[in-house]
């Protein structure tokens, strides 16, 4: 029982990342009808927003500290971050320590602008082209974005830690009445899961309870009619593209303490997220979220030693295996709508 | 000749000539000149041209003719490589048994994967093939280590049985004594030409592969595949079951990929799991699209173009750039080099990505379409407005409409 709960918990953080990326992919596909292979790159750029924030906050100048001396008795030169000199060492240190969550403030505007530019500059011209062309051009764009990041940040993963307050782990088992030290869970993963839930709930609420969301949903169902009613649906879809980019970016920012960002992390997640989208059903938002969590949890179950000893190698292939089985038995995925990508 | 029309025979002969003369044609600059950077006539690269040409020709039979976009063809490439290296380990360094078996085994794999994947079409087919390829890749890295030697990659060790190895047999891949890595170098007044046995072996196989694909393109079978690409629903309504045709195309292209993988291991007796990764599948898609999907020459051009850029662009470093722009004033020189620097050397992928995007945006038919547009431009200048119906996909002539 403890083992099962532990595996479910372990699956949640990966599942959250899959769910967030798949949600963005589905939003773009559902509104614009575009298969976006550059979505993984957006996730990656979000993660690098956290890195940029960390570097920005870490910018420092050299100051002679009169109180400390080196071994020759000369005053010591120390690096003082600007933030610390502005806000005092305590508050400044706390701000630097919280650089990953603060990266969100940078990621939201950056991702929305990037999404707008991508949609207006490139994707707009591909609505009428076949899906294969859309896949190819966004694939090319993903390569370009990756290489730009690689040029500025190098090819090695960059460590970005969670705030000290949230970087430990806590004993989840005692809360549920199990023995202590049975279910130990890193705190940041729980934060990530709650954050993902918050974002997902936010997106759904936005689509469900605002007039804007209503128009967008109407546009997803029948774009032409909405256009005929005199609503500028294209502008709203552009905003949705920016929103989807921001969701991917936020997923990336908060994922950095779990996985040190490198320039090809997007591609690794993209392949799996596509599998997630297809399993959930193309064009179904709840399907994407459910499939994301489902596959994340399945993956963590498959990497249990007990299961690996029965079926060796299952942890490597479980997601693909599930995808194959679901696609062959339920052609539209778990919650796919009729008539979406049927050709 | 060879069951081809006069025009196709001429085409084939040109291709044969170009392939056989490659070691000379790709060496246009003397060895000592500063442009020798751009020479591509060394064996390693020429072999890659031929091998990836075969891979792309095969992929084109599936994608170009039927429109099914497979994202998992690298799996067959890997299977072919592993088979050939296993034959080295068990039998000996003769490449022939390995290559034959590589084609057979990859055909079996393709039959299995194709049978399952082809139940769906469109993006679902792409995801299914991707899933199979990623499964093979992950398994090759983890559980199948006894067969694939995991991360180290499969290679021949001195304690392998190699039962057909004689006393005097060569100790590297060969074909009945013709050692693949042997080459003859001819020095003609500053130009250095390398005629490599391995390259000619690959080239002859590539010509055969090209000939077979030419015959498929011109056959009723090829016509059927094109009909499936144009409108599969209508094909089904006429009472035709299209799946055997698509499956046959899938298996044929899988065999081509297995052959290419086997040849890779024939040139260099190594096989690693990274050959099966999805980026490798993506690469063949890039080659085919860049050159022109559905055309005969396009995929080969695309494969050559990408491999050429990969090898030549990535060799250009800052030192070489300084050599080129030395004639400029210092400040300007540094500025120009800083501008070019991100696109060459380690950053050549950026160039590839941008080129690829430009091709997809402006030239959906690939390099072949670009060439045809240029040719049309020149022809129009000579004689204004002649009927020039260029047809990159070799579709049948449309029937004249009665009411018109």
From TrEMBL, chain A:
<keyword id="KW-0472">Membrane</keyword>
<keyword id="KW-0813">Transport</keyword>
<feature type="transmembrane region" description="Helical">
    <location>
        <begin position="237"/>
        <end position="258"/>
    </location>
</feature>
<feature type="transmembrane region" description="Helical">
    <location>
        <begin position="270"/>
        <end position="298"/>
    </location>
</feature>
<keyword id="KW-1133">Transmembrane helix</keyword>
<keyword id="KW-1003">Cell membrane</keyword>
<feature type="transmembrane region" description="Helical">
    <location>
        <begin position="16"/>
        <end position="35"/>
    </location>
</feature>
<feature type="transmembrane region" description="Helical">
    <location>
        <begin position="190"/>
        <end position="216"/>
    </location>
</feature>
<feature type="transmembrane region" description="Helical">
    <location>
        <begin position="42"/>
        <end position="61"/>
    </location>
</feature>
<dbReference type="GO" id="GO:0022857">
    <property type="term" value="F:transmembrane transporter activity"/>
</dbReference>
<feature type="transmembrane region" description="Helical">
    <location>
        <begin position="310"/>
        <end position="329"/>
    </location>
</feature>
<keyword id="KW-0812">Transmembrane</keyword>
<keyword id="KW-0029">Amino-acid transport</keyword>
<dbReference type="Pfam" id="PF02653">
    <property type="entry name" value="BPD_transp_2"/>
</dbReference>
<feature type="transmembrane region" description="Helical">
    <location>
        <begin position="95"/>
        <end position="114"/>
    </location>
</feature>
<comment type="similarity">
    <text>Belongs to the binding-protein-dependent transport system permease family. LivHM subfamily.</text>
</comment>
<dbReference type="GO" id="GO:0006865">
    <property type="term" value="P:amino acid transport"/>
</dbReference>
<dbReference type="GO" id="GO:0005886">
    <property type="term" value="C:plasma membrane"/>
</dbReference>
<dbReference type="InterPro" id="IPR001851">
    <property type="entry name" value="ABC_transp_permease"/>
</dbReference>
<protein>
    <submittedName>
        <fullName>Amino acid/amide ABC transporter membrane protein 1 (HAAT family)</fullName>
    </submittedName>
</protein>
<dbReference type="InterPro" id="IPR052157">
    <property type="entry name" value="BCAA_transport_permease"/>
</dbReference>
TrEMBL record, chain B:
<dbReference type="InterPro" id="IPR043428">
    <property type="entry name" value="LivM-like"/>
</dbReference>
<dbReference type="GO" id="GO:0005886">
    <property type="term" value="C:plasma membrane"/>
</dbReference>
<feature type="transmembrane region" description="Helical">
    <location>
        <begin position="244"/>
        <end position="264"/>
    </location>
</feature>
<keyword id="KW-1003">Cell membrane</keyword>
<keyword id="KW-0472">Membrane</keyword>
<keyword id="KW-0812">Transmembrane</keyword>
<feature type="transmembrane region" description="Helical">
    <location>
        <begin position="97"/>
        <end position="116"/>
    </location>
</feature>
<feature type="transmembrane region" description="Helical">
    <location>
        <begin position="123"/>
        <end position="144"/>
    </location>
</feature>
<feature type="region of interest" description="Disordered">
    <location>
        <begin position="381"/>
        <end position="404"/>
    </location>
</feature>
<feature type="transmembrane region" description="Helical">
    <location>
        <begin position="197"/>
        <end position="217"/>
    </location>
</feature>
<keyword id="KW-1133">Transmembrane helix</keyword>
<dbReference type="Pfam" id="PF02653">
    <property type="entry name" value="BPD_transp_2"/>
</dbReference>
<dbReference type="GO" id="GO:0015658">
    <property type="term" value="F:branched-chain amino acid transmembrane transporter activity"/>
</dbReference>
<feature type="transmembrane region" description="Helical">
    <location>
        <begin position="50"/>
        <end position="69"/>
    </location>
</feature>
<protein>
    <submittedName>
        <fullName>Amino acid/amide ABC transporter membrane protein 2 (HAAT family)</fullName>
    </submittedName>
</protein>
<feature type="compositionally biased region" description="Basic and acidic residues">
    <location>
        <begin position="388"/>
        <end position="404"/>
    </location>
</feature>
<dbReference type="InterPro" id="IPR001851">
    <property type="entry name" value="ABC_transp_permease"/>
</dbReference>
<feature type="transmembrane region" description="Helical">
    <location>
        <begin position="284"/>
        <end position="309"/>
    </location>
</feature>
<feature type="transmembrane region" description="Helical">
    <location>
        <begin position="350"/>
        <end position="371"/>
    </location>
</feature>
